[in-house]
Specification:
The complex is a heterodimer. Chain A is of the alpha+beta class. Chain A has three domains: 1-50 and 198-252 and 505-516, D-Maltodextrin-Binding Protein, domain 2 (3-Layer(aba) Sandwich), CATH 3.40.190.10; 52-174, Dipeptide-binding Protein, Domain 1 (Dipeptide-binding Protein, domain 1); 272-487, Roll (Dipeptide-binding Protein, domain 3). Chain A has helices at residues 2-18, 41-50, 99-110, 120-125, 129-133, 163-166, 177-183, 237-245, 260-264, 292-300, 304-312, 339-348, 368-385, 396-406, 424-427, 444-453, 458-475, and strands at residues 21-25, 55-57, 64-66, 69-74, 80-85, 144-148, 151-155, 199-205, 209-214, 228-232, 251-252, 269-282, 317-318, 360-365, 389-394, 411-417, 479-491, 496-497, 513-514. Chain B has a domain at 92-203 and 229-269. Chain B is built from 13 helices and no strands. Chain B has helices at 2-10, 12-29, 43-52, 59-71, 86-121, 126-140, 143-157, 167-170, 173-202, 205-212, 217-255, 261-270, 273-301. Chain B is flat, with a radius of gyration of 24 Å. The chains are: A alpha+beta, B mainly alpha. At the A-B interface, helix 8 and helix 14 of A face helix 3, helix 5, helix 7, helix 11 and helix 12 of B.
Chain lengths: 516, 308
């Protein structure tokens, strides 16, 4: 009897242990583990396990939660933000993190010599930073400073009430400069890496997996339950889906389009609105797309509900406005499906029943879902407007070159997922001369509205942004929104606690734990 | 023999030189570049990135620099994977891809010849029909269909083999499915090839003589038939090895094998110039050496061939 009891205990112990280990199918091999070089979703997930900035994202709302900073406050005009650092927070090697660590880390990110992608994100908001990034001034021009050992102060380019939310982004990461100085680029290797997040790096097999284990020096270690997380590198979503289904992984993100109907029946498949939009760019410098009536006609002759229900089928939300809705922000109304008005507009523009309309092409990057959507739209335009378009498929690198460098396209597929929860991350793209303004749209009123929004805050600012979106969509239809993205995750929330669907799809690891 | 070998070995150098030169200039003709992103990189950063990787220099100077580095077997930094040098990526992946390739080749050769012998000696009996049917399936079903089907059966339904990942996660079990999938078409082809050549040899005069002088049937098969029948198989080893090495690119993605095949595909999509170049060099070397080895084995087996 005692033997049986002992065996039972041993079994329970093993079961308990394995429940504190977590495996996720993480997508492509990370391009870098250096927080300042991070630029993609798979890297971001590893970053959130290993590192913490001044704040982290709330797992439900994505708003800022205290991390290295235990509190923060704004000046009255929202142009200065002061962070109070938690005393005694250390790196995994015991070295203390102070306000000066934060200053030096941010300067490293923005140092033009280091050439980090996304360095322009902090530079857009911190006073004096753009000059430093452009090489026009030294680091002393950047308005960040350590007031004392535990107080860090930032001066902003304007009133930015969401700044505390933003600093949870990896572009504002805090890094162990003492380790970087000691080991150079090798500091990210498992035997050398020093980090400050809930986990530390234990194993890195390129193209295979990354294993992290609990960091006992983490300031909130007593609340971290998971002992070990394994990130599997994979670039075939079918395999990822199968690994999850077979029980070899606890969480995966992507579901192959062909298996969507099967996935939707699963209880552990979570679909939630994401802060992102799938849209088409019009090249407004080309005839006949330089005519807003034509652009509106094209937009009104697409049944977007059919796209999300029959083509993508993953719970996406048909979009007439561009910015996804969020608290306090109502996107532009846009134009719904109205083929009769569309035909009228096209006739007014000089193409009754599509006669004389040139054959345009839709550019998209290789993917079965982009292709299906383009084919659907091609058919709709034929049916509703009597016009023909060609489909032009290019591999990612070529597509980016055509779209962003040579601008040699009529209509191009695009998608954008917000870096943080603020409409400006969408609307900033379309100012005259903006680097992502690939359709070469230009409208003075729009530019002015956005400029004004940078000098105001609160409700007034949101009003200006909403007005700008009305110009972009309702008035000019410069881009054609198709649907709002959704996050799709497979994770058994009956088994795991602390994981919630959220608009940025960011899930801090310290909260994830087996359900009791 | 030694002189022949040295001459063949030396001929590798101009071949590689041409391959490297052509690849170097061709991959730069593709639109886009290693630092193109959907969210454009700010100009100041882009200039510094180009400087860091010497991409701001004239192309020919870059080429000379590259040739100099490659002579020292230094493939440079990866443009995509910032923490790793290209040498590190190759060093991690090459042993994995090579062991998968060699195991698959061994499976294909041993299995293929065995099935070939059985079906030839039992011509037009049920063993023969089964073997021929399997061979037809093996040759006609592509790797990217065979892989997922085997995953479904052995990984998802029977749950006896892992669906993916490598030895460090699952032990030696992890090799079985990828190796079998990769070997299958070559196994099938070798089975057909050896069956046909065994049948041909069985009808030849020297076999009739061997039997007439009263040799035991087993001695006839093992000593005379097999040696004669193996020649076409050996000739096929060169293409088979190349096919297995290239096919492993597909297999590595399907089974999450951490070899050099997956980075090869990714490097092309990412315009990771240095990594593409290294992959091209390594794959060329493997193929050239494999063909050289086949030539030598061929001479050892066939006394009619002499090396001059």
């Amino acid at each position: 009897m005692r033997k049986i009891l002992f065996a039972l205990f041993a079994l329970l112990a093993v079961a308990g242990l394995s429940a504190q280990e977590f495996t996720m199918v993480n997508g492509a091999e990370p391009t870098s583990l250096d927080p300042h070089a991070v630029e993609g979703v798979p890297e971001h997930r590893i970053y959130t396990a290993l590192f913490e900035g001044l704040t982290i994202n709330d797992p439900r709302t994505n708003r800022a939660l205290p991390a290295v900073a235990e509190s923060w406050s704004f000046s009255k005009d929202y142009k200065t933000c002061t962070f109070k650092l938690r005393r005694g927070t250390t790196w995994s090697d015991g070295v203390e993190i102070t306000a000066d660590t934060v200053v030096q880390s941010w300067l490293r990110k923005m140092d033009p010599k280091n050439a980090f992608q996304y360095a322009d994100l902090p530079a857009m908001y911190i006073a004096g930073a753009q000059e430093y990034l452009d090489g026009k001034a030294g680091p002393e021009s950047v308005k960040i400073r350590a007031v004392d050992k535990y107080t860090f102060e930032v001066q902003l380019v304007g009133p930015i009430p969401f700044f505390a939310d933003m600093v949870s982004h990896y572009a504002f990461a805090i890094v162990p400069l003492h380790a970087i100085e000691k080991y150079g680029t090798d500091w990210v290797k498992p035997d050398k890496m020093v980090s400050n997040g809930p986990f530390v790096l234990s194993e890195w097999k390129p193209q295979e997996k990354i294993v992290v284990v609990k960091n006992n020096k983490y300031w909130d270690a007593k609340n971290v339950v998971l002992k070990k997380i394994t990130f599997i590198a994979n670039d075939d979503i079918n395999v990822g889906y199968n690994l999850y289904k077979s029980g070899a992984a606890d969480w995966t993100e992507a579901v192959p389009l062909e298996l969507m109907d099967e996935a939707k029946l699963r209880k552990d498949f979570h679909v939630a609105p994401q802060y992102g939009t799938y849209y088409y760019i019009f090249n407004v410098t080309r005839k006949p797309l330089d005519d807003a009536r034509v652009r509106k006609a094209l937009a009104m002759s697409i049944n977007k509900n059919d796209i999300v229900n029959k083509v993508t089928r993953g719970g996406q939300i048909a979009a007439n406005g561009f910015v996804p809705p969020s608290t306090g922000y109502t996107p532009a109304k846009g134009y719904g499906y109205d083929p009769a008005t569309a035909r009228k507009l096209l006739a007014e523009a000089g193409y009754p029943d599509g006669k004389g309309f040139p054959t345009l092409s839709i550019l998209y990057n290789t993917s079965s879902s982009h292709k299906s959507i383009a084919e659907f739209i091609q058919a709709q335009w034929k049916e509703n407007l009597g016009i023909s378009v060609n489909l032009l498929n290019q591999e990612w690198g070529t597509y980016l070159d055509t779209r962003s460098q040579s601008h040699n396209f009529d209509i191009a597929r695009a998608g954008w997922i917000g870096d943080y929860l603020d409409p400006s991350t969408f609307l900033d793209m379309f100012v005259t001369g903006g680097t992502q303004n690939d359709g070469l749209y230009s409208n003075k009123t729009y530019d002015e509205l956005l400029q004004k929004s940078r000098e105001t805050s609160g409700n007034e600012r949101y009003q200006l942004l909403m007005e700008a979106e009305k110009v972009l969509i309702d008035q000019d239809m410069a881009i054609l929104p198709l649907y709002y993205y959704v996050t799709q995750n497979l994770i058994d929330t009956d088994k795991w606690d602390g994981w919630y669907p959220n608009p940025l799809n960011v899930h801090p690891w310290k909260f994830i734990r087996p359900k009791k | 023999m030694a002189r022949y070998f040295i001459r063949r070995a030396l001929s590798v150098i101009p071949t590689l030189f041409i391959v490297i030169t052509l690849s170097f200039f061709l991959i730069r003709l593709a639109p886009g570049g290693p630092f193109a992103r959907e969210r454009d990189v700010p100009e100041a950063i882009l200039q510094n990135l180009l400087k860091r990787y010497h991409m701001d220099e004239p192309l020919f100077k870059q080429y000379l620099r590259y040739m100099g580095d490659i002579l020292r077997w230094d493939f440079g930094p990866s443009y995509r994977y910032r923490d790793l040098t290209v040498n590190e990526i190759i060093d991690h992946g090459l042993p994995v891809s090579m062991s998968l390739g060699v195991i698959s080749l061994a499976l294909a050769v041993v299995g293929g010849i065995a099935v070939g012998i059985i079906s030839a000696l039992n011509q037009n009996k049920w063993q023969d029909y089964v073997a021929v049917s399997v061979a037809v399936i093996g040759i006609s079903v592509p790797l990217f269909v065979m892989g997922p089907v085997l995953q479904l059966v052995f990984g998802m339904r029977l749950k006896i083999l892992p669906i993916g990942q490598w030895v460090s996660t699952h032990g030696l079990k992890a090799i079985i499915l990828p190796a079998v999938t990769l070997a299958f078409p070559y196994f099938a082809y070798i089975a057909r090839l050896s069956r046909a050549s065994i049948l041909e040899v069985l009808r030849s005069d020297y076999i009739r003589t061997a039997r007439a002088k009263g040799l035991k049937e087993s001695a006839v098969v093992w000593k005379h038939v097999l040696k004669g029948a193996l020649l076409p198989v050996v000739t096929y080893l060169g293409p088979a090895f190349s096919g297995i090495v290239v096919g492993s690119i597909v297999i590595e993605s399907v089974f999450l094998v951490p070899g050099i095949g997956r980075p090869f595909v990714q490097s092309a999509l990412n315009r990771d110039y240095t990594l593409i170049m290294a992959e091209v060099v390594v794959y060329s070397l493997i193929l050239i050496i494999a063909n050289l080895v086949v030539d030598i084995i061929y001479g050892l087996l066939d006394p009619r061939i002499s090396y001059k």
